[in-house]
Specification:
The structure holds three protein chains of three kinds. Chain A is mostly beta strands. Chain A has two helices and 23 strands. In chain A, the strands form four sheets. Chain A has a 16-stranded antiparallel β-barrel. By secondary structure, chain C is an alpha+beta fold. Chain C has a single domain, classed as ApbE-like domains (T-fold, Roll). Chain C has a six-stranded antiparallel sheet, with helices on one face. In chain C, strands 2-4-3 form a three-stranded antiparallel sheet. Chain C has a two-stranded antiparallel ribbon with strand order 7-8. Classes of the chains: A mainly beta, B mainly alpha, C alpha+beta. The interface between A and B is large, with 94 and 51 residues. Chain B: Pfam families: DUF4266. Chain B: This is DUF4266 domain-containing protein. Chain B: InterPro entries: DUF4266 (IPR025362). Chain B: It comes from Thalassotalea profundi.
Chain lengths: 429, 75, 276
């Protein structure tokens, strides 16, 4: 039988092969590369007596014909609860004015002052486009928009990576530019201005409060550079090394944080709104080793970060993936973090002393250790779907940076620990 | 205030990449283990994003693995 | 099959993996012994030895020859398992030793699948003709091995017989198999990485087998109709198809299209990776 030139070779072959191999159903050879793949996650984060956060993520990625990849991610999170306002605990109850100027809150004797007005919802959209340029160069560009009630952030980034040595070595370089805008309710407090605490119901309180503040919001810009090296060591081992540089300039003060001014007996006299430098330059070195044992995988990373606020930090993070006989995986996780205090960190100010140029009592830029212990359980489902559960315990242990406590502060808890639980469910399909 | 010179950093990266080119690596057909998703440097990006967000808002350092988090008023 | 063969099973059960591997090895040796043209005792050797007579054949041989027949039809006669005797005059040793038109013309009468006759129990060809199942035998073995692997377990399995590859399905967690196609005759930079979740790939081509005379290059891919080298075929071509035997045939057929190899495959909407 002579067939025409233009015929469906695939279909004809299918018949021929079915006869030869007796295979009734013949699958398609193409991968499902051109379908969207989704990762979703819901996370709960809860601190004892403090902040509670719930965060949901849905991320989708799609691969196109020439290995281009489009990734989109939507994040929604809500934050409620109380956060340390920076003031020290006292033997007597304390009263603070809310950052909005609308109302006050009382703190019991002996307790770390927490501002319970935190409530915010954030919506974030992230997009990234990645495409090969040549056989060994990959280029990527992306952006990020984030909006919450009093905060807006926009960022763009671009990254290029080149493979060498049979793709055993990958060198990458990236740059990111971010613009952040803060516009808190009640305005931004003037640096080191005294918190107005009086009769909130009096007729001139609102105008007096406004006098302590700037009407408008403020902003900051951040430029990030990232250089990376990924190296395959052998069949079992992979190493990643990164150097990153980050330079921010603009408003970096926390408008919700104050410092207590205490006398020699340690008794609070006033609360001053904090003030931080308007420039910060960070260097970070990140190293990661992935090692594949016979069946398990060890993932360990270390990060050293230093900045010109004189914060040095070390982070060690280890995960160990253990496959079980039933195909599930169990993954213990451990993280240790330690940081030194910023040079302008002051747990409190002493009455009568000259006010420094910059000062903050925010424990998050003070000396601190933190530890995370967690566990993840993964269940592969049919057709590439995957379900996992993760739970972790996180503890922050703020420490004294050497500042000598005075009077009653010697007997009060100035550096209280923070305990938190994180729980997460992830589903990929 | 401490600022380390950028030159030193470039030098460090340079030396690392040079040493990496020697005899390290595998042949394409030896990538059986490396090709697993779990062996990607960032094998669980969603977990990493959630963790980064928490640590960004609770600690003074961020980033390192990738661009340094941010985009929220939580810090 | 004169090339490294491997079976990769994505599981932790060593015992079962061993059992599957030995069953597949056994099947591979059976097919090798039965159809190798180098072995005069093989079915193939016997059919060649008894060219000119009507030979009894078993069902498996009938099915294979029927498949070869369909390949011949589909390719409009380009793919022909009787073309092997051209090797008697073409020695691709990188010399300038090309045959004369007279030598070629002398052989052409003994080439041509249409000069054979096949029934479900017998096969007959003209005296001095030869068949060679090399073009489909290895791929057939891969597909048979896949059937065995699927019967013995549900674990994701990859069969690789000297670069002819098929998988039973995606790896655990629906991950694709990542295959580096490296052809021994090609430079390292030409390696291709192929990702497949189902189906098979096969590679054809050998850049080291050619003759060079008066600046003209004669590659090892021969047109059965003329007996001469096909002009400007790719150095190697890797084709994806649901089954290995299809991939192998398509890769060979593409090379026979010479400079139009890629055009032929893309016209037919067939996934391929070509190296020129």
């Amino acid at each position: 039988m002579q067939l025409t030139d233009k015929k469906n070779v695939k279909a004809l072959l299918l018949t021929a092969t079915t006869t030869l191999l007796g295979t009734a159903s013949v699958q398609a050879a193409e991968t499902k590369a051109d379908e969207w793949q989704f990762d979703t996650a819901l996370m709960y984060y809860g601190e004892t007596d403090r902040v509670t956060a719930v965060e949901a993520i849905i991320a989708g990625s799609k691969q196109f014909g020439n290995d281009e990849i489009l990734s989109l991610k939507l994040t929604v999170d809500t934050l409620t609860g109380a956060s340390a306002n920076g003031a020290v605990a006292q033997n007597t109850p304390q009263t603070f004015t809310r950052p909005s100027g609308k109302g006050q809150y009382q703190i019991k004797a002996g307790e770390t002052p927490l501002d319970d007005t935190f409530k915010d919802t954030r919506l974030q959209l992230t997009g990234q486009w990645t495409q090969p340029l040549t056989e060994r160069d990959i280029w990527s560009i992306g952006g990020n928009l984030s909006k919450e009630y009093d905060y807006f952030s926009a960022a763009i980034n671009s990254n290029i990576a080149r493979d060498f040595n049979k793709k055993n070595t990958t060198v990458s370089a990236g740059v990111s530019f971010a613009f952040d805008q803060i516009d808190p309710e009640g305005g931004i407090p003037n640096a080191f201005h005294t918190m107005l605490i009086g009769d909130v119901d009096s007729s001139n309180f609102a105008s007096d409060f406004d006098a302590t503040r700037k009407e408008s919001g403020d902003d900051k810009t951040t430029v990030d550079l990232l250089l990376g090296l990924t190296q395959v060591i052998n069949r079992n081992m992979l190493v990643q090394l990164n150097y990153s540089y980050s330079a921010s300039s603009g408003y970096m003060t926390d408008p919700f944080k104050v410092l207590s001014v205490v006398d020699q007996q340690g008794i609070s006299q006033t609360y001053l709104y904090e003030n931080r430098p308007d420039s910060r330059k960070k260097h970070a070195f990140f190293g990661q080793v992935k090692y594949h044992f016979d069946t398990t995988i060890l993932d360990t990373s270390y990060r050293y970060m230093m900045d010109d606020w004189e914060i040095d930090s070390h982070t060690v993070d280890t995960k160990y993936i253990i496959p079980l006989a039933n195909g599930h995986t169990i993954e213990p996780h451990f993280r240790f973090y330690t940081q030194t205090a910023a040079e302008f960190y002051k747990p409190f100010l002493l009455e009568g002393q000259v006010i420094p140029q910059f000062a903050s009592a925010d424990y998050r830029i003070g000396e601190m250790d933190a530890m995370t212990i967690g566990m993840k359980y993964g269940i592969p489902l049919s057709d590439g779907e995957h379900l996992s559960f993760r739970i972790a315990y996180y503890q922050q242990s703020p420490k004294s940076d050497g500042t000598q406590a005075v009077g009653q502060l010697n007997d009060l808890e100035l550096y209280s620990k923070v305990d938190a639980i994180m729980a997460q469910i992830s589903y990929s399909f | 205030m401490k600022i380390i010179s950028n030159q030193k950093v470039w030098l460090l990266i340079g030396v690392l990449s040079l040493s990496a080119c020697s005899s390290l690596g595998v042949e394409p057909w030896e990538r059986d283990k490396l090709a697993k998703k779990e062996m990607l440097p960032n094998s669980a990006p969603i977990d990493a994003a959630l963790d980064d967000h928490i640590y960004f808002s609770k600690e003074a350092s961020s980033g390192g693995r990738s661009f340094g988090g941010g985009g929220c008023g939580c810090n | 099959m004169a090339s490294p063969c491997e079976v990769l099973i994505d599981c932790n059960d060593k015992l079962l993996a061993n059992n599957i591997a030995s069953a597949i090895a056994k099947e591979a040796w059976r097919i090798e012994d039965k159809y190798s043209r180098y072995n005069i005792q093989s079915v193939c050797g016997q059919l060649n030895e008894k060219a000119g007579q009507s030979c009894a054949i078993d069902n498996e041989t009938f099915l294979l020859l029927q498949f070869a027949d369909q390949c011949f039809q589909i390719s409009n006669g380009l793919f022909d398992i009787t073309s092997g005797i051209l090797r008697k005059i073409w020695h691709f040793d990188c010399s300038d030793n090309i045959p004369t038109q007279k030598e070629v013309s002398h052989l052409l009468p003994f080439i041509g699948w249409s000069k054979t006759s096949l029934t479900d129990a017998t096969f007959t060809m003209l005296p001095n003709m030869e068949i060679d199942l090399g073009g489909i035998g290895k791929e057939y073995a891969v597909d048979k091995a896949i059937l065995i692997a699927k019967k013995m377990s549900t674990y994701p399995t990859l069969i690789n017989f000297g670069g002819d590859i098929a998988v039973t399905g995606p790896r655990n967690e629906n991950q694709a198999w990542l295959i580096g196609v490296e052809h021994p005759s090609l430079k390292e930079k030409n390696n291709v990485m192929v990702k497949i979740k189902t189906g098979a790939i096969a590679t054809s081509g050998d850049a080291n087998r050619y003759l060079l005379k008066n600046g003209k290059r004669y590659g090892h891919v021969l047109n059965v109709k003329t007996g001469w080298s096909v002009e400007e075929p790719p150095n190697a071509i890797t084709v994806a198809a649901p089954q290995c035997i299809q991939a192998g045939f398509l890769a060979t057929l593409a090379l026979l299209h010479g400079k139009d190899a890629e055009l032929f495959l893309s016209d037919q909407d067939i996934k391929y990776w070509a190296i020129r």
